[in-house]
Amino acid sequence: MTSVCDQRQFQRLIDLRCVQIAFLLAIAIFGVSCGGDGDNPDNFDNRAPLIFAAASLANVLGEAASLYETETGNRVDFNFGGSITLANQIALFGAPADGVFFVGERPAEVFAEAGLVPAPGYPNTFSNSLVVIGPNGAARLSSLEHIASVKARFAIADPLLAPAGVYARQALESAGIWDEISSRAILMLDVRAAMAAVESGNVQFGIVYKTDAATSDNISVLYEIEDGYSPIGYMAIPLKGASNEDGAAKFLQYIVSEPATLTLFERAGFTIAGVPGRPGPNR
Question: pLDDT at residue 45 above 70?
């Protein structure tokens, strides 16, 4: 009989292999996007800062980068995905990130375990919350426990790859229904993939960040999960010793200090926290 320890070790090996494959694909795509200057030996040193960021930030960071480029003339490039996966790409495989904008505690632990000490950043500047989503027209849920009474599949981000999955599992465990419904959970690469599974009709429910749900016209929020999981905080950090650490630091400082970018985050549904002169989150 296979022990739980053996199963966990096997899963960790699978996880690391998936991270490695994802990293190689990301590098290939990034290389193609910069193909026009590939023969210039100075291109890498002069490139725009590359920020590895949580998938849940894709929309708002794109808007913020446009403002930044308009105001400063400087471009910023991104690689979006599950924060744990991206942290592993940097710590284990040397992915060329200049800065990170991650969510959750596990990515910081990955850096610490790898002996990487990032430059001081702006931890927990923004916060988020969880919601249960379903297709448009679906009836609202009276409680999280209602998912257990409906024999249907649901999607969450994989807790091994993305903090959104960690928070979702915490909420379901707190509600006392994880053991009952975990066999019906469809684990996705990140929170956006979990939302896409609901949009496509492949699952009946999904648990995602409130801000992600606000970006889609094809799903409805069926229930807001107000407690039962750790506070969801985002950290923006330029990486010490990165080839364009200074460029990353300037962009991330712009994000957390400019009223225009803070307004973008507020409009997207994020709670502003840790910014001088502004109140912190309520939870």
Answer: no
Q: Give residue 110's Cα distance to chain centre.
A: 15
Distance CA 61, CA 65 (A): 6
* ∠ Cα 50 165 203 (to 5°): 110
User: Which H or E element spans position 233?
Assistant: strand 232-238
> Exposed (0-12), middle (13-18) or buried (19+): which is 63, by Cβ within 10 Å?
middle
The token pair at 152 is 């249907």
Q: What is the set of domains in the chain, with CATH numbers?
A: 4-127+233-272 (3.40.190.10), 130-225 (3.40.190.10)
Predicted pLDDT of residue 162: 97
Q: What is the pLDDT of residues 146-175, one digit of tens each?
A: 999 988 999 999 999 999 999 999 999 999
Tell me what the mean pLDDT of segment 77-86 comes to: 97
Is the distance from CB of 115 to CB of 246 less than 8 angstroms? no
Helix (H, G, I), strand (E, B) or coil at 6: helix
Closest Cα partner for 228 from 158, 132, 161, 141? 132
What are the pLDDT digits (tens) for 101-140?
999 989 988 887 887 766 555 566 899 999 999 999 999 9
- Extract the tokens encoding 49: 């800062």
Amino acid letter, residue 152: A
Listed in sequence order, the residues at least 6 apart from 102 whose beta carbon sits closer than 8 Å to its beta carbon are 52, 53, 54, 83, 86, 87, 108, 163, 234, 235, 237
**pTM of the predicted model, to two decimals?**
0.81
